[in-house]
């Protein structure tokens, strides 16, 4: 562990020296004067005075050496389209898009709201924004109109870029009616809406405000648009958090710090080298998509694979076939996708030649032990869990194999990443927890480069939301619980919002979920706390069974419910015992695979589940309603 320890220590004790060295990884048009400005805590400014550009670093800079290497490989199992763009071709497409956007009046500092499905034009748009110094704000394609309207009003874009439609699981989702309704609801009226016409929507609406991209692209086919050299701390993008726990926050990212942090992470965490191929199965609407579909792999000179479709269409072997066909070296996805694959025929994994694959990375939600062991055994390659948030932009906890390949620990995303002064704190006193003691995961000041610089348009919310939970100390709260062992490995115990209070005992719903998942009948589980007149709160569980047919009969279900309750009793004690275990065939989740416990709890207490912009499948909420209504019967 010594190499890792020493590396981490240096990054915390001498951050200026540490990051000055790392900053050499990117191109600075004008060198920075100061590595770190800490004059206005909790705000931190990295590489002050330096001028650079994300698009230049991701694309232009590679043209001398790798113009003919693939930069972007695009595969859609929804439309059957597959395209490859070399760095030279990507450069040309970005310049066309940038010229079109400029002709529509977009300039440095303007916001551009990107409401697009997973198509190459989304990459062109984001990088064209970076080129022009415009601030992109990507909103999940298919978000409901009210959520889109709220983001339009918050970001006040000068341009919206959208498409006629998205597609998912073979279903076409018309975007135009959603954009129509959002524009009608929003106070802010963007002057232009640019449409990428995929010719997918069955009834192509032709709202008068829509400008089609294709004719403009032709017009600007040979355009060259120079990069705007931005000061390192100018904003590059705004990205709203998932909203799992409340009103989404517009996370603002800088330019220089982000580029440096991502470039360093490609070596120390992902071990990705120029010429490698990386497949991040995520969505551009999520932070993993921003950082590891687009910016990091391109900044480091890799080929990035962008995929539109689900992991199980045409069948559960599709991702593994992509690995074979495109000689993918690094893969990155969320545990939820693996749980889906595990339910399919796992033998599909063995049918493809996976020899090119070096490592599988997972992030976004807790990686349960059964899934972790299943995939590690099946692949026979390292599986690296990593923990982070929209706010941080890149991992806070991981085994940093490029620094030292520490042994993985099941159930833990690893040890604190260099640059992060990560400690677990007692929620009340703010004191550092002893090994094995549960606490809130916090970060010391300053946050390393690449982390959020503020909340869009609301510096005060940045301070009051993130920096005020531990009294008298300059600490950033992640709002996640964890526990750290004597070797530094942290296990995530859930969100601080997910704590329930049963008769004066504080319990993490996550721990109850772990106990239930250990039962072989359980595939997935969500536990929420609901108000109870006697105990304050009680736990309520919703489980998805591995083999629902076995428990079709009422008796079998009742017996299983009793069995599950006993399992919790045995592992955590009777106090943690769920009042009921409801059986459903799916759980409500966001598009990025996060469980919507907030919505389940609301339904269980008879409240309106509220704004659920990213819900994956509304049918899942209906199942929760039905299960609750069925009441007495399990
Ligand atoms: P909001 O902040 O609006 O409620 P959100 O927190 O769901 O939304 P994200 O930033 O996408 O939005 O999610 C980050 C959170 O996901 C983390 O704070 C943590 O709770 C969880 N998470 C991410 N990676 C992991 C991981 N490897 N293991 C366990 N939990 C993880
Ligand atoms: Mg969050």
UniProtKB/TrEMBL annotation:
Keywords: ATP-binding, Ligase, Membrane, Nucleotide-binding, Transmembrane, Transmembrane helix. Residues 4-58 form the Acetyl-coenzyme A synthetase N-terminal domain. Residues 61-444 form the AMP-dependent synthetase/ligase domain. Residues 511-594 form the AMP-binding enzyme C-terminal domain. The chain crosses the membrane at residues 112-134. The keyword Protease does not apply. One of its GO terms (biological process) is propionate catabolic process, 2-methylcitrate cycle. GO terms for molecular function: ATP binding; propionate-CoA ligase activity. It comes from the Bacteria. Belongs to the ATP-dependent AMP-binding enzyme family. This is Propionate--CoA ligase. It comes from Paraburkholderia phenazinium.
């Amino acid at each position: 562990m010594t190499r890792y320890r020493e590396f981490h220590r240096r990054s915390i004790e001498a951050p200026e020296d540490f990051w000055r060295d790392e900053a050499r990884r990117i191109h600075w048009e004008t060198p920075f004067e100061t590595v770190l400005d800490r004059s206005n805590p909790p705000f931190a400014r990295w590489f002050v005075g330096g001028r650079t550009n994300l698009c230049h670093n991701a694309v232009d800079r590679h043209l001398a050496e790798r113009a003919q290497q693939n930069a972007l490989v695009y595969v859609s199992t929804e439309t059957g389209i597959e395209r490859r763009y070399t760095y030279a071709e990507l450069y040309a497409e970005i310049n066309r898009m940038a010229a079109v956007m400029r002709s529509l009046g977009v300039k440095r500092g303007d916001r551009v709201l990107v409401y697009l499905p997973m198509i190459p034009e989304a990459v062109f748009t984001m990088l064209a924004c970076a080129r022009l110094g415009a601030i992109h704000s990507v909103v999940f394609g298919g978000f409901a109109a009210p959520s889109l309207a709220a983001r339009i009003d918050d970001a006040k874009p000068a341009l919206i870029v959208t498409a006629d439609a998205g597609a998912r699981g073979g279903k076409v989702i018309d975007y135009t009616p959603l954009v129509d309704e959002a524009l009608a609801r929003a106070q802010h009226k963007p002057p232009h809406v640019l449409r990428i016409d995929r010719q997918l929507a069955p009834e192509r609406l032709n709202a008068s405000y829509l400008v089609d991209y294709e004719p403009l692209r032709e017009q600007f086919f040979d355009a060259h648009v120079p990069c705007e050299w931005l000061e390192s701390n100018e904003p590059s993008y705004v990205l709203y958090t998932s909203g799992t726990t409340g009103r989404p926050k517009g996370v603002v990212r800088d330019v220089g710090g982000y580029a440096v942090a991502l470039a360093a992470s490609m070596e120390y965490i992902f071990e990705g080298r120029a010429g490698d191929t990386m497949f991040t199965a995520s969505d551009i609407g999520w932070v993993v998509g921003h950082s590891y579909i687009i910016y990091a792999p391109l900044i480091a000179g890799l080929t990035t694979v962008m995929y539109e479709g689900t992991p199980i269409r045409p069948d559960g072997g599709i991702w593994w076939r992509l690995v074979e066909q495109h000689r993918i070296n690094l893969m990155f996805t969320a545990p939820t996708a693996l749980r889906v694959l595990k339910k399919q025929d796992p033998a599909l994994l063995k049918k493809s030649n996976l020899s090119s694959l070096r490592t599988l990375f997972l992030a976004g939600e807790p990686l349960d032990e059964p899934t972790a062991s299943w995939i590690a055994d099946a692949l026979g390659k390292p599986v690296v869990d990593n923990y982070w948030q929209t706010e941080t932009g890149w991992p806070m906890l991981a085994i940093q194999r490029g620094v030292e390949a520490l042994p993985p620990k099941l159930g833990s995303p690893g040890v604190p990443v260099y640059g992060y002064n990560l400690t677990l704190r007692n929620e009340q006193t703010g004191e550092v927890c002893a090994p094995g003691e549960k606490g809130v995961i916090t970060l010391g000041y300053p946050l390393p480069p690449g982390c959020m610089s503020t909340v869009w348009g609301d510096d005060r919310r940045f301070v009051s939301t993130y920096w005020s939970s531990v009294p008298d100390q300059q600490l950033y709260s992640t709002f996640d619980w964890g526990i750290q062992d004597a070797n530094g490995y942290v296990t995530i115990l859930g969100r601080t919002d997910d704590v329930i209070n049963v008769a004066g005992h504080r319990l993490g719903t996550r721990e109850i979920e772990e106990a239930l998942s250990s039962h072989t009948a359980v595939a997935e589980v969500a536990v929420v706390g609901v108000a109870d007149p006697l105990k304050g709160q009680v736990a309520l569980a919703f489980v998805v069974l591995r083999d629902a047919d076995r428990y079709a009969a009422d008796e079998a279900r009742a017996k299983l419910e009793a069995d599950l309750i006993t399992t919790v009793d045995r592992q955590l004690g009777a106090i943690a015992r769920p009042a009921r275990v409801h059986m459903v065939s799916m759980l409500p989740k966001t598009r990025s695979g996060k469980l919507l416990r907030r919505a389940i709890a609301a339904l269980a207490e008879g409240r309106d589940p509220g704004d659920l912009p990213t819900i994956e499948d509304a049918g899942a909420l209906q199942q929760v309603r039905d299960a609750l209504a069925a009441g007495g019967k399990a």
